[in-house]
Amino acid sequence: MRILLVNPNMTQAMTDTMTDIARGLAGDRAEIVPLTATTGFPYIASRAEAQVAGGIALGMIAEHIAGVDAVVIAAFGDPGLTAAREVFDVPVVGMAEAAVLTAAMLGERLSIVTFSPVMTRWYADCVRATGLGARFAGVRTPDAHGGDVANAAQNMRAELVTLARRAVSEDGADVVILGGAPLAGLAPEVAGEIPAVVIDPIAAAVAQAMTLASLRLRLEGRACKPVAKESVGLPPALSRVIAHEAAV
Amino acid sequence: MRILLVNPNMTQAMTDTMTDIARGLAGDRAEIVPLTATTGFPYIASRAEAQVAGGIALGMIAEHIAGVDAVVIAAFGDPGLTAAREVFDVPVVGMAEAAVLTAAMLGERLSIVTFSPVMTRWYADCVRATGLGARFAGVRTPDAHGGDVANAAQNMRAELVTLARRAVSEDGADVVILGGAPLAGLAPEVAGEIPAVVIDPIAAAVAQAMTLASLRLRLEGRACKPVAKESVGLPPALSRVIAHEAAV
Amino acid sequence: MRILLVNPNMTQAMTDTMTDIARGLAGDRAEIVPLTATTGFPYIASRAEAQVAGGIALGMIAEHIAGVDAVVIAAFGDPGLTAAREVFDVPVVGMAEAAVLTAAMLGERLSIVTFSPVMTRWYADCVRATGLGARFAGVRTPDAHGGDVANAAQNMRAELVTLARRAVSEDGADVVILGGAPLAGLAPEVAGEIPAVVIDPIAAAVAQAMTLASLRLRLEGRACKPVAKESVGLPPALSRVIAHEAAV
Amino acid sequence: MRILLVNPNMTQAMTDTMTDIARGLAGDRAEIVPLTATTGFPYIASRAEAQVAGGIALGMIAEHIAGVDAVVIAAFGDPGLTAAREVFDVPVVGMAEAAVLTAAMLGERLSIVTFSPVMTRWYADCVRATGLGARFAGVRTPDAHGGDVANAAQNMRAELVTLARRAVSEDGADVVILGGAPLAGLAPEVAGEIPAVVIDPIAAAVAQAMTLASLRLRLEGRACKPVAKESVGLPPALSRVIAHEAAV
Amino acid sequence: MRILLVNPNMTQAMTDTMTDIARGLAGDRAEIVPLTATTGFPYIASRAEAQVAGGIALGMIAEHIAGVDAVVIAAFGDPGLTAAREVFDVPVVGMAEAAVLTAAMLGERLSIVTFSPVMTRWYADCVRATGLGARFAGVRTPDAHGGDVANAAQNMRAELVTLARRAVSEDGADVVILGGAPLAGLAPEVAGEIPAVVIDPIAAAVAQAMTLASLRLRLEGRACKPVAKESVGLPPALSRVIAHEAAV
Amino acid sequence: MRILLVNPNMTQAMTDTMTDIARGLAGDRAEIVPLTATTGFPYIASRAEAQVAGGIALGMIAEHIAGVDAVVIAAFGDPGLTAAREVFDVPVVGMAEAAVLTAAMLGERLSIVTFSPVMTRWYADCVRATGLGARFAGVRTPDAHGGDVANAAQNMRAELVTLARRAVSEDGADVVILGGAPLAGLAPEVAGEIPAVVIDPIAAAVAQAMTLASLRLRLEGRACKPVAKESVGLPPALSRVIAHEAAV
């Protein structure tokens, strides 16, 4: 099977790290096709950025959808997820949503730990958007926004473990999600130091994309799909998808 | 005061109708500055279209923000609302949100009546996004999607009144919102035939925009604003706003 | 237009302060007609007091309703609001409700800061009554109930600012309501010291009353109105309203 | 023990019927002391009427509280309940609340069946006020408001049974509450015709009042009690209670 | 009347204490028939243990149901409650549920105080299962699990009072439940030291069982009852109940 | 990897069908180890039966846990799921929960269609237990309970398709779950006739079990695990697990 791993951020190094994790998990079950945004933002961290980047993600998916069995939107916060699910006839998975729903099968109360307080509001929104707000024990972050996001996983390792331990002991979490692309790959390294199940969102998302693809579900003909619509100024591939002219 | 009325749809006739209503309400209290999208869709009707059109709306606002006291996003469904509120330091009002919150001061249970079942999911989402889902009695629409959206207000007048009356008698609504830009202006015409308060969303939105502007609130310096961010490929005015380079 | 500003507390000085704010906001848009209760309590601070004072408010409104375009119940806690909305055919606005719904158009999470822990339960109830409990970040107050309620705005200014800053940094609020009539007028003074939008409830309520009146909605004929009822021992004007004998 | 049965309606015949049921249930466990309102309304059926009648109920309780072990507010809709609970140091029980909480120990989903659509909104409010809205399957009533409220139990018997059966088969209720004082005593008569547990609210309320009194709980000294307050124009006994001058 | 007091724990001393309280409360109104589990666990403290013990409780009830008017499941956490309610045609009451619903008639926000953090998740589950999660202010416990559960009420008295006082002052509780069978009987001893209503769950449960029995409700013929079913390996009495062969 | 497929029903034919589906999905990724209950019920259909069967499932898992990478509880309704998750240190998946969470990644509103109204309450409970009640559009079933459960998939095929189509058109579902073991395998056959995504719970559950196992999460050392406990009368393997004596 063929999985599109769409990074709506412009940072190639993040795509590379996530692709490595995805390929390690997929083995020979799936071909991972990574894409990195060429417009937009180096690292999405707000609703305004997600509004724009979600549209960019739609265009990236539309252009590469041929022959694809499932799509991963590889940014925690899931820009464009609901929109993509509406128009493409393959499963589309978001990192935050997949991590949260996977967590819901492993425990009762989930927390997110991440590297910056800047992300708190957006990440909390993502959990509530799944409908699982009642099982959410909150986001734990350092007090201040540090500069070196790219190396957060290594530079902040000890602090992140401490935050995760407090999520367990003070907030009652039994599953902890290490959220945000810069922390990709950290979960298995620190799991032994945290008395809860620890989830790596990119691993969860890629695993769920393969799972949904393996179920060979029929997504064509859904009553909920938008009617065909003309458009102006969109990327040509996306314009064709929305006009129901493209094979999706 | 100066109110930006941003229509993220490309249909100029809708903008014209809404501008007339806005000016009738504003009198000499406010100058209404209408804008119509020149890219995107003739009439937004899905989450995918709203994802793209919300980004377009951000660009339109950014280009015309100088000297503006409040912004109305003049499409029921509020594309780009949360994002715009985050980055601009003036009040930003959405048609759906303003109609719903206005309704909440006039009754206990609100319904939306609109011209097509295609809009149901998206409109219901808008109500839930406000947090007032528990006071929502649902969306009532004709069974099928008709062709002539532009003239829905006149062609479907009797059917819309019947739907509104059923929203009252069967769903328990005491406030009815006539949702969707094609129905702008219909509410005062039919209010006498419906045993509930009937709201015109564009009127509610323009009135709320003037209200918020009149309160002379301080929006600069909010802790919730995103940090400055570089970007590639965005409309220049929006790029500057997001980089904190523009006066907003 | 003519706005009735009904203070169900017996403290004339509060009415005077709120009337000044209302008139400053209304300019020549509206005539503000203030009323102060002559029975009941100097300052309502509990559900039991609100039960009694709400009935008193109904009587005050009934006696002065002729020619009125909208009513403000000028006590945070909104005694009698739901009841008044049911029987009078003009918009009725409460200070707490109007502040909360206005806040909901300016941010995502709202907090209330007030001068005494005695108010906490009642104020929290008011937010939940709007249906927006999920967007409520709590009430912050000093630890103890101080004696000089009348001068709380000036005597406790620094402490209230500190509480509001904690509502932002610890509770995640992006809008702060300074609740309680004794704090009327404080919001614009301290807004620059608080990294969130700061709302003065009396300003929000008067602005919303004028907004609703300006929409020229039809409230007569609502299906939700109580049937005519005889009564014994009520203020004559209220008795006539409830018997459907009075023009309202 | 001594139970105050406070009817905030002015209809003596209702008080008599409810007193008979209460005494039948109490046997020699408790003395039932009935009170009927002498001001207010013959039969409360709206929020506005409940606002006024709740204040009347407070005065009635205050005047007769000496030596009382628990209070029943004997009107479905519970006017004044929260207020009374706040100021009196004995258990106070409402007919609607007691019926709903009793129902919650007998099944999973509860419905209310009553004699008039006029009551629907108010009764639904009562259920939601308990916090058990998620277990509420709705109110079922005849389509129109009939004239002869006093004899509803006998005249409408067959229709009420049909409504209750539909609450079970269509709404999924496993407990049905026959709401409204005119239906007092009907539940045991029709229980055999309805495939669910059928509750008589006055029986539930009196039973719960005796239950709470039997637990010999300490209500004095609660931190949630309002501070002492002066008042003007209240019934003297109530004024003393609110001023903390009366023994309660 | 005859009340079955079923302790699904194997600790006879707990049964004895609870039986004493039950008999003190029942006086000559009811005969209390205590049962103690002879298989299972000394003291249930987890969902896994409750899964097993709930099945054991069903068997105990089935064997002794003849002539019984109501059943108390005498373990906080209510193992088997929903299942028992489904199959037996007499009221079945759980200690946690009865305490929570009784609390809901005495105040607005309830907390649970117990002797060990091990119970927190399970007890919180019990409150949410009633549907009253929105009125729940949380569980307060000592930081660590102590060894001597049997004597917790006396050994930890001071600490439990402190926890209860913090539940009031910090969590806003106005009713405190002392949860867990080892604390049976403590509530009346400490009520004077806690500024809230303090509830003893076994007293609440026994009182509610007698209350429900006194209402002489008809539970036979409920549409929600499971259809008759054959089984293998169950205690014979339970097998007959589930096969609809036994008189229940 | 090794997946335990535990059927807590006693019907071998169901186990065989589900094992075939599981093996078809697993291919050479996983060994499927099926177990069928030898005590309990032929087909679990109520809470009381689930209470007993959940305990039986715990014993079955405990006896066969050695070398297992994940467990599927192969009964819609998930008897014993929460309990099993608490005590075993491998992922445990339930058919209902897995179907619901999988559905949540494929659409916005999910419905369950099943073969008998007898299951409605229990299945609805399962959805709410996941926390996703707000995205639940209800259970659709035939009006009456038919006799031939074993052949429901073939005998009721047309009726089930009609019910699913109504779940889409009337309830707004965009994902439909065909619930209950007798319908295993039907989903792919009828998907083309239903304008929504159609899910087979056993396929979803087995796919999720393999997914969770593939993530190689660390479940040992979770703070939420119960403390070691002695027991009497349990299956020996389960007794050792609960006493922390067994390797799990």
UniProtKB/TrEMBL annotation, chains A, B, C, D, E, F:
A molecular function annotated in GO for this UniProt entry is: amino-acid racemase activity
Q: So where does this one cross the membrane?
A: none
Write out the coiled-coil annotation as residue ranges: none
Q: Which family does it belong to?
A: Belongs to the HyuE racemase family.
Q: What is this protein called?
A: Putative hydantoin racemase
Q: To which species is this protein native? A: Sagittula stellata (strain ATCC 700073 / DSM 11524 / E-37)
